Amino acid sequence: MSLPPGFLDELRNRVSISQVVGRKVVWDMRKSNQAKGDFWAPCPFHQEKSASFHVDDRKGYYYCFGCQAKGDALTFLRETENVGFMEAVEILAREAGMQMPARDPVAAQKADRRSELAKVMEEAVKHYRLQLSMQGGAVARDYLARRRLGPEAQARFEIGFAPDQRQGLFNALKAKGIAPDLIVEAGLCARPEDGGAPYDRFRGRIIYPIRDARGRAISLGGRAMDPNARAKYLNGPETALFDKGRNLYNHGPAREACAKGAPLIVCEGYMDVIALVEAGFGGAVAPLGTAVTEEQLHLMWRIHDEPVIALDGDAAGMRAALRVIDLALPLLEAGKALRFAMLPGGQDPDELIQAGGRAAMEQVIAGARPMVDLLWAREIEGKVFDSPERRAALDKTLRATISRIKDPSIKVHYGEEIKRLREDLFGMNRSRGGRDEGLRSAPRDGGGWQPPREGGGWQSARGRGFGRAPAPALPLPATRSTLLAAAPDERVTEALRETMILAILVAHPVLVAEFEARLDRIVFADPGHERLRGLILAHCAEPPEAIAAALARAGDDLEKLLAQPHVRSAPPVLRRDDTDFARMCLAEELAKLQAARAVRSETEEAMEELAGLADEGLTWRITQATQALHQAGKSRLEDTSDLGEDREAMSAFLQSLLEKHGGGSGSA
């Protein structure tokens, strides 16, 4: 549903963010100034004792100087209440006394129809709950008692019973004045092919109501009491209310529990969820009779940043885990992950809790493994890598798997972890002369090339004895504190370019919208730089004045950036009235940074491949990346040729910084 222009602005004007936030925090009145709309409190998003969480009531924004949480009243409501955007809008609109905008007639008609179907579903839930308590539900009650589900648990999950009657529910709902078409459309009954009277879908089954995130009954699940039934579990069909691939069992209660700090545990079935909740794991959900879908993964990540997939510890459970991993790989993003808890002995959560209690399940959850561990185990389990060809095949498979990750930062970290695991497997991390026994892929002897030890290599050999060069002078404290001295040697140029890119954007926020797409494709190596980049992108759609105001609240990251000597003296930073010059400098720095990283990435991958068998495309790829680097410098030179002395001054400035570092930053 789209909102009319100005609706959100009016809503934010009517709602005081200090009142919204004040329901969740205790203000530090010694630090706050209510008259100026300036409020401070301990942050509700991370554990702390100091008041680093700031609310500006006049501007309608909050910001934490500890964890960098930020946003407006809607953002705060979404994060603390774990609700969606439109739900947050509706909540604030009710508080502000604002009428939600009317929907278009077709959408309103569909919504009204869904509301009618939801009412029919509620009547069905009541009917089946009643049947469980009657004489015909004795068998079902006995079964639930054997599963240790008492009356309180049955009431919490609204468990019911469908007697083995062809039209028991149909006749009961029709007697309440509900039209047969609605009963069929809700998925409760089906029409026979010969066109006769509708018949109940659920017969001789224990009934589990399925509710959406808002608590509406949208479908039913049923477990057969007859062990010879064709399907042990049966879910309602797809309807206007129910899409089984877009919902989760126990979604709403789990969302509330996770908002209070509970882990999100994803298991396989209704009884697993109920057993977990009864054992104190309130954040338990389950897919609805299907393998986990992409939409369900996004639902899970909206509830919790790192769901734990708890699956039976048998072969089927492992296959299910690997299917989830293959689905999740392209969807991964920073801060959104999955962990996997494989239950021992082929047990499911219900069986494990009955056997070992809550402590047994807690131990399994605490030992949940990251996705990369399962990926690695899949590729090496039961295999022997005693030949270059087999190792090359493993490398090829792993590269193909990692290439499916779209987020560049996560792809890099996965590559690093896989590389570490590979080195451990092939015995590359053992010390000189040592040997890893039991690694069948390790070399037969201790020979072969080894990287030089720290302090060794040709330079140390040449430096022994007569003619040793004098030790270099120690750097001054002021020199040690500079970015050029602190950055890794081979990446000092990139660190310099990161600071210049950010500094230019801080000095010229009008350029943010123009360079948004290119900035979004770069991940900065320095965590402080990456936070500033994220802050800039978060406000890129706002006017330059708002971007500047947001950056002014960036705290230590901004102060550290602007304190760098080369930033304070940079021409595009000093000349704040010359936007054209800043634009040219920014474009050049972005192009060179992207090209340099492309070269390094290809070179690192090439070095890894050269440890095994190099393919024919290896040299070509390095050549292409190197040409891209040179082309970046050439194209920027052509694009900025009209800058004349300005561009030459900027280039000379950057070159002097690099030469100072390369020539020995430690001179006194």
TrEMBL record:
Q: Where is the composition biased (Gly residues)?
A: 445-458
Q: Which residues form a coiled coil?
A: 586-616
Query: Superkingdom, according to UniProt?
Result: Bacteria
Q: Name one Pfam family in it.
A: Zn_ribbon_DnaG
Names of required cofactors = Zn(2+)
User: Where are stretches of biased composition, namely Basic and acidic residues?
Assistant: 433-443
Zinc finger residue extent: CHC2-type: 43-67
Show the GO MF annotations.
Answer: DNA binding; DNA-directed RNA polymerase activity; zinc ion binding
The entry sums up its family as follows: Belongs to the DnaG primase family.
- NCBIfam families in the cross-refs: dnaG
Q: What is this protein called?
A: DNA primase
Species assigned in the record? Paenirhodobacter hankyongi
The gene that this protein is the product of is dnaG
